[in-house]
Design brief:
The complex is a heterodimer of chains A (241) and B (303). In chain A, a hairpin with a 5-residue loop joins strand 1 and strand 2. Helix content of chain A is 30%, strand content 25%. Chain A is an alpha/beta fold and 241 residues long. With 303 residues, chain B is α+β, with helices and mostly antiparallel strands. The relative contact order of chain B is 0.18. The chains are: A alpha/beta (241), B alpha+beta (303). At the A-B interface, helix 2 and helix 3 of A face helix 7 of B.
């Protein structure tokens, strides 16, 4: 199954991007790559190699040491503080540690992403309820994060990330804290989102996951990035997923 | 504590913070002090003003007992007194001349001497009050000279010294009370600012999450502003709840001790209005303080 990009629109573009530690050692350098709208990408490499930093560069959690990063056709380095919220509202972020607000229920956590954009509370909660049913948490609407399993928390995080119907979904090790079965289910969710047009960039160090899905892989290693085009996915194995 | 407000869910749960629970009480204590200082200062200032007004445009001529030997009601008949009265009425700018009645004189001396019977036998001077036109300029020295020509021991009291003293005292009390009120307000706003900073540090993760999902600075700031408003409004009401009984007690105590002038009509209508508006005013100002504090931090994070 050959990889086909779904659009020629560059949603994220790295041009000669370099990121260096304060002491001058590169996290990566001279990175030029375009992520196309509607596609699915893996960002791989061992832990600590800079996958999270690369994602942070996209959502302007970090600034590059050199080069230009364009997202949605805009150089993110030129975004003013006042423009950042609207910029981030167009993307969804999923984190390994979920980053849910502990005092809010699953429903309120998901609704929050809409609430901050100015949608009224009742409408936000109604959409959030629908999404939580979609991710299979219809029976856990009023559970606080501490009462949920890691997989369930991650699904709440995904629901929160997609409730605004983002053009771009950045997922940082979303399967890192869950078992294989839960990881597979989460991957299917990401695939479903991708099928409805969301560009997905998923950072993972889990080779098993990458081998099962036919998407291009950006591999970070020792400051350099290599791009591996997908081959046929590995067959489904009962003992893995 | 969450007095007077329905408990709502905040994106940043600052009410769960231990320091925040005591904030209304701290604000309440400061508001109580503020109200006591403000009310007492305005009451004492008002009393001084009334005294000041009472002394204004008055002159008193004191004729020694030896110069006016006729006693009681016949004092006015004394040739010296008659002469002074006739002269006083011809002075330009003098509106009214009056010999102070014996009873009034005794009443003035009673607090110092006590026994009224003793006073009846005392050799007391004759006092003549002159009411002067406020716009008139009196030749005070010339007046004294002329009166001494009539009676050697005559003294003239223009109350200038008292005027100045009361004016200085009134001004000092006013300035001091404004300074104390300023310090207390400053303390309230410093407390709010510090609490906001501590909440910003304690809930850094929540703030990061809100920013990552696209919350505007104004949205995050509003969370803190609401908390500051609630804490100060609750504190203001707590302050009032304690201040009003204390003020009424002081008023009662002043009447009981026979010095009702000092806390006359306290708390006055103006003070009561001020007391009721104060929590709202402080709450609104604290929202501004909180907003500035949070925005400064968020702008630093944006850099």
């Amino acid at each position: 199954m050959a990889f086909q990009r779904r659009s020629s629109v560059e949603i994220v573009k790295f041009e000669q991007v370099g990121l260096y530690y304060p002491e001058g050692k590169p996290v990566f350098y001279n990175l030029s790559y375009s992520f196309f709208a509607g596609s699915f990408y893996f960002l791989t490499g061992p832990s600590g190699v800079g996958k999270s930093s690369l994602l942070k560069l996209i959502y302007r959690g970090l600034r590059p040491s050199e080069g230009v990063i364009s997202v949605f056709g805009r150089d993110v380095g030129t975004l003013s503080p006042a423009e950042l919220p609207a910029f981030r509202q167009r993307m969804g972020l999923v984190f390994q540690d979920c980053r849910l607000l502990k005092h809010l229920t699953a429903l309120d956590n998901v609704a929050l992403a809409l609430k901050v954009t100015g949608v009224d509370s009742r409408k936000s909660r109604s959409y959030a309820k629908e999404l939580l049913h979609w991710v299979g948490l219809g029976d856990y609407l009023n559970h606080v994060p501490d009462a949920l399993s890691d997989g369930q928390k991650q699904r709440v995080g995904i629901a929160r990330a997609v409730i605004t119907r983002p053009l771009l979904l950045l997922a940082d090790e979303p399967t890192g804290n869950v078992d294989d079965t839960a990881a597979y289910k989460l991957m299917l969710l990401f695939e479903e989102l991708n099928k409805i047009g969301t560009t997905v960039i998923l950072a993972t160090h889990d080779r098993e996951i990458v081998s099962h899905f036919p998407y291009p892989e950006l591999q970070l290693y020792q400051g350099q990035v290599t791009v591996n085009q997908p081959s046929a996915p590995a067959p489904y194995r009962q003992n893995n997923y | 504590m969450n007095l007077f407000f329905k408990k709502g869910i905040q994106d940043i749960p600052m009410t769960q913070e231990i320091g925040k629970q005591y904030l209304p009480w701290i604000i309440g204590l400061l508001v109580l002090l503020l109200l006591l200082v403000f009310t007492c200062a305005s009451s004492i200032g008002g009393t001084l003003l009334r005294w000041h007004g009472g002394f204004n445009n008055k002159l008193t001529i004191e004729v020694p007992f030896a110069d006016a030997t006729v006693t009681g009601a016949e004092k006015t008949a004394s040739p010296v007194i008659q002469q002074i009265l006739s002269f006083a009425q011809t002075i330009p700018g003098v509106l009214h001349v009056e010999v102070v009645e014996n009873e009034r004189l005794i009443a003035l001396l009673r607090p110092w001497v006590g026994q009224t019977e003793v006073l009846q036998d005392l050799e007391m001077p004759t006092l003549i009050d002159l009411e002067v036109d406020p716009g008139a300029t009196l030749d005070f020295e010339g007046l004294k000279q002329h009166l001494r020509g009539i009676s050697q021991g005559v003294r003239v009291e223009a109350y200038t010294r008292w005027h100045q003293m009361l004016a200085v005292m009134g001004q000092a009390i006013k300035t001091l009370s404004y300074a104390i009120v300023g310090f207390i307000l400053g303390a309230i706003f410093i407390v709010i600012s510090l609490m906001t900073k501590s909440s910003l540090a304690a809930y850094q993760d929540n703030i990061d999450i809100l920013r990552l999902i696209g919350a505007k600075n104004s949205y995050i700031t509003w969370q803190f502003q609401v908390q500051a408003f609630k804490a100060c409004f609750q504190g203001g009401l707590i302050g009032i709840m304690f201040a009003l009984p204390i003020l009424y007690f002081l008023s009662w105590l002043a009447r009981y001790l026979g010095i009702p002038e000092i806390f006359k009509d306290m708390p006055s209508t103006e003070v009561l209005v001020g007391v009721l508006v104060l929590p709202l005013a402080i709450s609104l100002l604290s929202m501004i303080v909180s907003r500035v504090t949070v925005l400064r931090t968020l702008v630093r994070l944006d850099r």
